[in-house]
Design goal:
A hairpin with a 4-residue loop joins β6 (about 50-55) and β7. The termini are far apart. The chain is elongated and about 125 Å long. The protein has about 240 residues and is an alpha+beta fold. A 3-stranded antiparallel sheet has the order 1-2-3, with no helix packed on it. The protein has a two-stranded antiparallel ribbon with strand order 4-5. Strands 6-7 form a two-stranded antiparallel sheet. The protein contains 2 helices and 17 strands. Among the domains are: about 5-65, Hormone Receptor, Insulin-like Growth Factor Receptor 1, Chain A domain 2, CATH 2.10.220.10; about 75-110, no CATH class; about 115-170, TSP-1 type 1 repeat. Helix content is about 20%, strand content about 35%. Interacts with the extracellular domain of FZD8 and LRP6. It however does not form a ternary complex with FZD8 and LRP6. Interacts with WNT1. Binds heparin. Interacts with LGR4, LGR5 and LGR6. Belongs to the R-spondin family. It holds the Pfam family TSP1_spondin. It is found in: Secreted.
Length: about 240
């Protein structure tokens, strides 16, 4: 062993030197050179840092740099994330997406263009005018549909989701059942209100009469009873009118 090489290293190094840091790594660790100013220091890591990819060999596991436009990569020729200003497509970083694809600024990838899709039209609605279905001859009917797939940035826009057209129907009078029903309902409510009022008045009357009766009974209990005096006419002896 070279005098400058030590085997009592720390940080995952198998061999190291005071000047160059790690020279070899313990099993399963990756060796990578880190630049500090004009100097490169060897370090041993459990996984390669951003901008590097790992390669395993029988004698050593090494971290190699990705391409200049790659932020992270699986191999040198297969990027998994691109640097700012580039879009990822099939492991490559491109400044402009191929024809038929669009740039997704959120994921920084080239994705397929998605066009809008709408459902089938619903049946035409009944002919109406101002929300009514009677009392007119010419009105309008409508139909609607739903959006089932919204478009991407470069996709075809969505069509209208509703249509209206004029319609002609046989005029018919509007029944006044609703108005009559409303009047009957109002009368019923008024009748119930009057009955409730009479019931309340009767209840108050009964309570007042009960209170007066109780008051009289209390007065009779507190006053002394008067002794009954016989009538003078009843006490006089009968006059003999035979003489």
């Amino acid at each position: 062993v070279h005098p400058n090489v030590s085997q009592g290293c720390q940080g995952g190094c198998a061999t190291c030197s005071d000047y160059n840091g790690c020279l070899s790594c313990k099993p399963r660790l990756f060796f990578v050179l880190e630049r500090i100013g004009m100097k490169q220091i060897g370090v041993c890591l459990s996984s390669c840092p951003s901008g590097y990819y790992g390669t395993r060999y029988p004698d050593i596991n090494k971290c190699a740099k990705c391409k200049a436009d790659c932020d992270t990569c699986f191999t040198r020729n297969f990027c998994t994330k691109c640097k700012s200003g580039f879009y990822l497509y099939s492991g490559k970083c491109l400044e402009k997406c191929p024809e038929g694809l669009e740039a997704n600024n959120h994921t920084m990838e080239c994705t397929s263009i998605v066009h809008c899709e709408a459902s089938e039209w619903s049946p035409w609605s009944p002919c109406t005018k101002k929300g009514k279905t009677c009392g007119f001859k010419r009105g309008n009917e409508v139909r609607v549909r739903e959006i089932v797939q919204h478009p991407s940035a470069m996709g075809n826009p969505c069509p209208a989701t509703s249509e209206s057209r004029k319609c002609i129907v046989q005029r018919k009078r509007c029944q006044k059942e609703g108005k009559g029903k409303k009047n009957r309902e109002e009368k019923r409510k008024k009748s119930n209100k009057d009955e409730s009022k009479e019931t309340r008045q009767e209840s108050k009357g009964r309570a007042a009469r009960r209170q007066n009766r109780e008051q009289r009974e209390n007065n009779n209990k507190t006053q002394p009873k008067k002794r009954k005096v016989p009538n003078k006419e009843q006490t006089l002896a009968p006059v003999d009118t035979a003489h």
